[in-house]
Amino acid sequence: MDNTAVDNSFISKTSLPSSICLQRVVSPLPMAKNDELNAVKTSAALKLVQQTQAPVHRQNSFDEDIKQEWSGVVIAVNNQEFTVQLSDKINPDNPDEIVTLDVEEVDPAEQSLIKPGALLYWHIGYRWSSKRPKERFSKIHFRRLPVWSKKELNEAEQQAEKLEAFFA
Amino acid sequence: MTRWQTTDNNASIVLIGEFTPEQFHPMWFIHNKIVGEWEYMKEEHMLLPEFMQFDLPPGCKTTITTNNFSIQTSLESDFLTMKDIVAASLQQCSNLSIKQIGINYTETLHIDSLNDWRFLGKQLAPHENWQKAAPYIANLDEEKQLSLGLTGLQMQLPRQDDLSGYIYAQINVISPRERTFLFNVNHHFEIHGEQVAKVQRILEGHWDSSIRSAKELINCMMANFMESE
Q1: What residues have CB less than 8 Å from B23, skipping those under 6 apart?
Q2: Average pLDDT over residues B156-182
Q3: Residue A96: what pLDDT?
Q4: Quick check: B144 and A3 CB within 8 A?
């Protein structure tokens, strides 16, 4: 990290594997499509690492600093409010908290998901960008968890019947 | 005030196996209630039979090829949602063949001073051996001599748990002039047998710890190197 005099000229196509990573920064294509990657596939370790690393995309025009993160479950819904039991994900030793929130805290596209038993994440922190000053934000996101298939429900039911018969 | 700053971070999940990219059309994610309905702009997407790339809400860059499924977000408040998208997708595709999974966390770091930048590089990759191996460097002008330096480094760390795989830490310089580099930590798992179920268990059981340990590793490495000066 001493090469202060060369700027980006070190992105040599003959330099592996660092050039691969740097190309990932500017290329939206996955590394597996990169011809240069094929050249280093003789190294098993490199192959493993690079295959499960993702290409780097710069997606957002702002940055975040998360100060608090909870996972929660909706325990009651009343008109414009809903009550949530929250578990602190940053400090898991903290006791659970029960809070009541306004439905308007939730994005309109997700308000239909507010039902007893629904799971959510709640983040509080700061966000900023080069064009916007630092601001506090609160984001509630309802989880869309895998739906149990009929087959899985049948299997669970059969398993329950077996256990019931065993303990009867 | 630390002598380095994290200017950006992102997390990603990469699955290696056999995929049918055209199956994972944005509408597939909506139809299976993995994401909510959204007005996706088709012109921003690449939807080809063997290559699909699109942004899933809330902001997850998703790329699927015949051997790779990767999803990435650079908003920390979306990390868990991204994990849920992968878990829900796997639930719909229980017969997928998956050989490896990577949980990645990457920070873009900026070093404040040139002295610290040089010091860190020399700590990570001492110059002496390179200068001995390439003695002509000593005869070059000062500007050329300064171009000797680390541009990339990769370390393999053993896993703490009994799962098959490693932790890979990788450093890659983005801009020497701006003194910025990427520090990536790749929790790499090899999958044997009952593939989808195992990947789901890894995601549920190791997501938080993988991201947390990656952050700690980056922070500890930076603190150790900078404090050793």
Answers
A1: B93
A2: 94
A3: 96
A4: no
A32–B68 C-beta distance less than 8 A? yes
Distance in angstroms (rounded) separating the CA atoms of residues B20 and B28: 12
**CA distances from residue A47 to A19, A36, A163, B45, B193 in whole angstroms, order as listed:** 15, 12, 46, 28, 21
Nearest to B105, CA basis, from B79, B85, B124, B77:
B79
- A142: CB partners within 8 A, 6+ apart: A106, A110, A113, A114, A118, A119, A120
**Residue-wise pLDDT tens digits, B98-145:** 999 999 999 999 999 999 999 999 999 999 999 999 999 999 999 999
> What pTM was computed for the model?
0.81
Domains of chain B by residue range: 4-226
**Pair of tokens at residue B157:** 């760390």
A127 and A63 in contact (C-beta within 8 Å)? yes
Report the CATH number of the A63-142 domain.
Answer: 2.40.50
Size of interface A-B (CB pairs under 8 A): 195
Q: Which residues in chain B are contacts of A46 at CB distance < 8 A?
A: 154
Residue among B16, B88, B175 whose CB faces A8 most closely: B175
Assess contact for A114 and A101: CB atoms under 8 A. no
Distance of CA A148 to the CA centre of its chain: 22
For A44, phi then psi, to 5°, come to: -60, -45
CA distance A122 to A106: 10
Q: How confident is the model at residue A41 (pLDDT cuts 50, 70, 90)?
A: very low
Cα-based angle B92, B95, B99 (whole degrees, multiple of 5): 110
Which residues belong to CATH 2.40.50 in chain A? 63-142
